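Tip: read the tokens left to right.
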């Protein structure tokens, strides 16, 4: 399975790989933008726009479906344990959202660190009861800010975690 995925991605254009990375829960913008700029040689403006849009796409189904899906899946012990783990972890990481609400959600998504981002921000918005009409623009704004930070780091304009990728 992993080999087939690697094969599929290696035969895909850099734009497609960038979009997939931006939509994936682990890499999100933090992986997509540096990949696009450094490996794909995609202009930073195009990399930014593609990654921001692609990173926002999963937010909508997460916000609208996590409640009904988790409620249904919790009927089985394995899934109940998974959702307990996921929700406990998200609540622990989302203290900023609980305290500062919308501003906390924006900042939580905007800080380009592991365990933050659009996926976790969407879960946290659901868990802390942030209304969708407020959560959607807050998460989008956070994605835009994170995209600026990661783009600046990927182009070498700022040092990020002591690492620069200037070329």
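Filled-in amino acids:
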């Amino acid at each position: 399975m992993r080999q087939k995925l690697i094969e599929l991605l290696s035969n895909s254009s850099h734009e497609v790989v960038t979009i997939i990375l931006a939509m994936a829960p682990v890499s999100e913008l933090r992986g997509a933008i540096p990949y696009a700029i450094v490996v794909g040689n995609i202009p930073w403006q195009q990399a930014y726009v593609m990654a921001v849009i692609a990173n926002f796409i999963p937010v909508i189904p997460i916000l609208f479906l996590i409640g009904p899906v988790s409620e249904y899946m919790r009927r089985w012990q394995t899934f109940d344990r998974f959702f307990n783990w996921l929700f406990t972890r998200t609540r622990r990481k989302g203290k900023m959202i609980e305290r500062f609400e919308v501003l906390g959600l924006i900042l939580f998504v905007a800080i380009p660190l592991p365990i933050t981002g659009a996926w976790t921000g969407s879960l946290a918005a659901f868990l802390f009861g942030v209304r969708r009409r407020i959560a959607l623009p807050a998460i989008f704004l956070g994605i835009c800010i994170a995209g600026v930070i990661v783009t600046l780091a990927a182009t070498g304009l700022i040092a990020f975690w002591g690492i620069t990728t200037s070329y």
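The chain has a mean pLDDT of 89. The two ends are 34 Å apart (CA to CA).
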